[in-house]
Every structure is written in C-alpha cells, then in structure tokens.
C-alpha cells in the first residue's frame, strides 16, 4: 500500500539519527539526581570511563551540597576531574534516608567526604582514591558546592561550543534543569542536540518515579514540549527494574573505587536495579547494540499532569522510541557488571 510504503520510508529516513553508528567518541551530557539511588553513581562510572564517550558536562537536578561533591570526586577518580558540574539551587546539606523500606543506606555525603579532597588540596581522610592524581573540581567541604555552575548556563555554554547535532543528553533524574533549558532556548537544542535519552515512565504506559516523584508538571513540560526538536528515546522503569547489577563491582572491584564503595554503602552488598546505567549505556553506544531493541516504530510519549505516561501511536511521529531488552535480564546485568569492572580497573592505566 502506498501509504504504508511512504510510512516505511519515512521511518527509515528519520530513524537514521537514532540508529547512526559512532566512529568518534560521542559527546554526552548527563542530567542526574545523584543523591538517593546509587544507580546514578553506576551510570557516572560508565560515562566517565567509556572510551566511546566524550563527557562534556554533568548537571545535577537535586539540591544537596553533597551531590556535586560526590560527582566531582567520582569524576576525579576516573581522571575526569575537569568535567564541569552544574546544580539546581537552592542547596542544603541534605542526606538521603530510606524512610520507605528502611533498607537502603546513604552514599553521597560519604563519597563526598571520603573521596573528595580538602579545600586546601590535601587529602582529607585516609581516603582511598590516591590512585588518581586528579583533584576534584569541587572538593570537600560542602560549602564548595556553591561553586558548581548554574545548570542552564552550563547547558548553554556546553551546547554552544559543541558541533551541530553532536550532543546526546542523558536525563537520568528529574526535569528542572531541562525544563529551564527548554524555556531558555529551543533553538540551541534543535541545532546542537542529536537526541535526548530519558530514564522515566513505563512503556507502553504507566507511572514511574522520575516523572511523578519530583514535579510532574516539569516532566510533562520537557517530554511533551521537546517533541519535534530532536529525536527522543525512553528507558522505562520496567526495563532497568528487571536488571540487577553491581555485585561483581562490589566483590571484585578495586577497594579504592568510589562507586564500588557507594554501592556497598547503599545496598550493603545486594545488587541494585539498573535504570540509570542501562540508560547511559544506550546513550553512550548511540544505538540498540546487542542488548536493546526498540518497542515501537511510530508515535510519541505523552506525560500527563499527574506524572503518568502513555505511548500515543500516531503515524505522523517517527522520531521517538522506547527501549526493550533484546537479551535476558541476566545477560544485560552480566554486561553491566563487566563494564563496571572494566571501568573501575581502567584507573591509572592511561585513561
Ligand atoms: C588542610 O586541610 C586538612 C584537612 O582539613 C587540615 O588538617 C590541614 O591543617 C590543612 N592544611 C593547611 C595548610 O591549611
Ligand atoms: C588507612 O586505612 C588502612 C586500611 O584500612 C589502615 O591499615 C591504615 O592504618 C589507615 N591509615 C591511617 C593513617 O588512618
Ligand atoms: C518553563 O515554562 C513552562 C511553561 O511555560 C512552565 O510550566 C515551567 O514551569 C517552566 N520551567 C521552569 C523550570 O521554570
Ligand atoms: C529476570 O527474568 C526472569 C525470567 O524472565 C524472571 O523470573 C526474574 O524475575 C527477572 N528478574 C528481575 C529482577 O526482574
Ligand atoms: C493520571 O492521569 C491520567 C490521564 O488523565 C489518568 O488516566 C490516570 O488514571 C491518572 N493516574 C493517576 C494515578 O491518578
Ligand atoms: C538557570 C535556571 O533557570 N535554573 C533553574 C534550574 O532548575 C531549578 C529548579 O526549577 C530552578 O530553580 C533554576 O532556576
């Protein structure tokens, strides 16, 4: 049928930016809520150690002073201490406590304290990241968090300096910064961003924390208003929730690794769902690779005012996808565990 043929060729043409293979390192910005769940730290390990990635900036969408210090210490450990960090304001010295299940520990302030460096540049504690000569951009004490950039300014300067259509943004938390960026400049997004990869929602429909847990109106604003600006790929709660990773990093990883220690502090040795690491892995690889496949060819994601979402199967929209696993959850977990170890063991080996 003529219309079906037209549709197929439209899908093919427009899918190119989504499926394009990278030969050079991919420009990546992550927007992370590195504070509560430790999977943000796992995602940062991948982004900071992958040879496929040119990590341009890290924006943080929760207002804890410990978050940028922890991110800075992790980046410095992997030799990426000069990657700029932005964070929402206002900031408070807040820690995460798992009051829901009383199961999970706190890691951001501990990473900041034990793996950061003192403001005068010397080691603050018997800290274990001495394998890296890089100092964190934002060292302990917590007041240094105020030196982190304004997220929208950081987005704007980073995108402006990048080549056209070259930047992947991985959103692995809440939407304050991206909403503010969208309100600040749709034009820069259209010109510089290759695609937005979002951890949030359930597919094809449902309700997930990143969309409803902070400010559902901002999640709805970003997801619904980004449509047409750049391709978007969504990674849902059901995807990462079935993939439990971190065990090998905790058991076999170097004792000096801050992300290994973060997992131990947070999970007490249990593996953790892989929402953010899987999302960043997809964003880094720039395609479905071995682990993923797309769950749709047409349509778009819609976020309701209450933070629930649903896929709208509209034949006119062909530049949005949601991810599914192509392999078993165990195979995906094994690949993440392998990459965590490769990344952790790469420190001091000329990265
Ligand atoms: C540097 O910081 C450490 C740890 O806070 C402190 O013990 C030390 O006295 C400081 N050194 C100088 C020269 O300020
Ligand atoms: C540092 O930690 C190691 C291992 O836990 C311990 O053996 C050593 O005594 C500590 N050094 C200092 C100065 O606290
Ligand atoms: C951006 O604009 C939208 C609609 O105009 C508004 O709802 C949203 O709150 C704004 N975002 C921020 C972060 O202020
Ligand atoms: C992984 O997949 C198996 C088989 O489908 C399932 O029984 C198991 O519950 C899954 N694990 C998680 C954590 O969802
Ligand atoms: C959220 O809003 C949608 C659309 O109005 C509705 O279908 C859904 O039931 C709502 N979900 C909750 C949990 O209120
Ligand atoms: C520059 C800017 O608009 N930054 C915003 C990032 O998001 C937080 C939360 O909405 C705002 O308070 C900031 O103003």
From TrEMBL:
Keyword Hydrolase included in the entry's annotation: yes
Molecular function GO labels: hydrolase activity
Domain Inosine/uridine-preferring nucleoside hydrolase intervals: 28-225
Keywords: Hydrolase, Signal
Signal sequence extent: 1-21
Pfam families given in the database record: IU_nuc_hydro
Family: Belongs to the IUNH family.
Protein name, per record: Inosine/uridine-preferring nucleoside hydrolase
Lineage: Eukaryota, Fungi, Dikarya, Ascomycota, Pezizomycotina
């Amino acid at each position: 049928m003529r219309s079906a043929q037209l549709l197929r060729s439209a899908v093919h043409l427009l899918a190119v930016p989504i499926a394009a293979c990278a030969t050079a390192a991919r420009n990546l910005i992550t927007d992370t809520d590195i504070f509560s769940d430790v999977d943000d730290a796992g995602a940062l390990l991948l982004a900071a150690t992958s040879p496929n990635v040119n990590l341009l900036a890290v924006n943080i969408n929760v207002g804890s002073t410990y978050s940028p210090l922890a991110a800075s210490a992790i980046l410095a450990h992997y030799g990426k201490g000069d990657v700029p960090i932005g964070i929402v304001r206002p900031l408070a010295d807040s820690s995460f406590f798992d009051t829901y299940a009383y199961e999970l520990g706190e890691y951001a302030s501990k990473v900041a304290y034990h793996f950061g460096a003192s403001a005068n540049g010397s080691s603050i504690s018997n800290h274990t990241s001495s394998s890296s000569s890089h100092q964190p951009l934002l060292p302990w004490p917590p007041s240094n968090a105020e030196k982190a950039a304004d997220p929208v300014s950081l987005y704007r300067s980073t995108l402006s300096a990048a080549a056209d259509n070259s930047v992947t943004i991985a959103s692995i938390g809440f939407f304050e910064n991206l909403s503010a960026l969208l309100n600040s400049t749709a034009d820069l997004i259209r010109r510089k961003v290759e695609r937005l990869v979002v951890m949030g929602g359930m597919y094809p429909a449902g309700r997930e924390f990143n969309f409803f847990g902070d400010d559902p109106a901002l999640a709805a604003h970003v997801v619904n208003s980004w449509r047409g600006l750049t391709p978007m790929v969504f990674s849902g709660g059901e995807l990462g929730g079935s993939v439990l990773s971190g065990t090998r990093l905790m058991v076999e990883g170097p004792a000096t690794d801050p992300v290994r220690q973060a997992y131990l502090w947070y999970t007490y040795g249990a593996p953790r769902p892989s929402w953010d690491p899987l999302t960043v892995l997809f964003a880094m690889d720039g395609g479905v690779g071995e682990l993923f496949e797309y769950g749709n060819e047409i349509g778009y994601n819609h976020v309701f005012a209450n933070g629930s979402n649903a896929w709208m199967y509209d034949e006119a929209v062909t530049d949005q996808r949601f991810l599914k696993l192509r392999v078993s959850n165990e195979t995906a977990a094994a690949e993440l565990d392998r990459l965590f170890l490769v990344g952790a063991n790469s420190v001091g080996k000329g990265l």
